[in-house]
Amino acid sequence: MKKKIQTAFLVMLLSSTSVCALADNSFARGEIIFKKCAGCHGLDGRNKAFGKSGVIAGQDSADLMESLNFYKESEFKGQGSTLVMAKQLKTFSTQDLNDVVTYVSKLPK
Ligand code: HEC
Predict the structure, then answer these.
(1) What integer pLDDT is reported at residue 1 of this predicted model?
(2) Per residue in 37-56, pLDDT tens?
(3) For 77-98, how does the pLDDT look when each residue is reduced to its tens digit (9 = 90+)?
(4) Which of 1, 73, 77, 101 gives the lowest tally of CB atoms within 10 Å of its CB?
(5) At a CB cut-off of 8 Å and minimum separation 6, what does 107 contact?
(6) What whole-number distance in Å separates Cα of residue 96 and Cα of residue 70?
(7) Which of 85, 90, 98 to mutate to test the pocket of ligand 1 (most atoms within 8 A of CB)?
(8) 40, exposed or middle or buried, with CB in 10 Å at 0-12, 13-18, 19+?
(9) How far is the CA of 45 from the centre of ligand 1 (A)?
């Protein structure tokens, strides 16, 4: 009985820490993911990629997510610069999108 309680407590402890870690890690994970974007958008997110994109640093997270979903959903049907972005996001999970958006939205404008 005592062991069961200990196990339950341990499970609770582990699951609550991993939930916190996830929330805190979104920014950190986003920073790692953003290294793939920096080549075109700049390390500070302020390059205009190929002279085509806007400055993405500090954009509202809802706007960023809308752009990324647009590119992701237009996968390979798009042309030119839209296609470039679609390729970047091809293998991104929802979590990856969320994390990179968290990071980019917090970059100084
Ligand atoms: C190979 C170069 C390249 C890479 C790498 C790249 N992008 Fe882009 N990105 C572009 C181009 C070009 C556009 C403009 C596309 C268009 O014409 O709509 C763009 C547009 C965008 C936009 C819309 C910007 C606006 O105008 O508001 C966002 C947001 C964005 N990219 C985010 C990202 C993120 C996040 C990553 C990394 C996962 C990334 N990009 C990687 C080239 C790139």
Answers:
(1) 60
(2) 999 999 999 999 999 999 99
(3) 657 888 889 889 989 999 999 9
(4) 1
(5) 44, 45, 46, 56, 57, 58
(6) 15
(7) 85
(8) middle
(9) 10
- Is residue 107 over pLDDT 90? yes
Which one-letter amino acid corresponds to residue 54? Answer: G
CA 77 to CA 90: how far, in whole Å?
12
Tokens 């793939």 correspond to: 36
Residue type, 24: D
Residues 6+ apart with CB under 8 A from 47: 40, 41, 55
Is residue 57 lining ligand 1, measured as CB closer than 6 Å? Answer: no
22 C-alpha to ligand 1 centroid (Å)? 25
Q: CA 36 to CA 47: how far, in whole Å?
A: 14
From atom 21 of ligand 1, which residue's Cα is the shortest distance away? 53
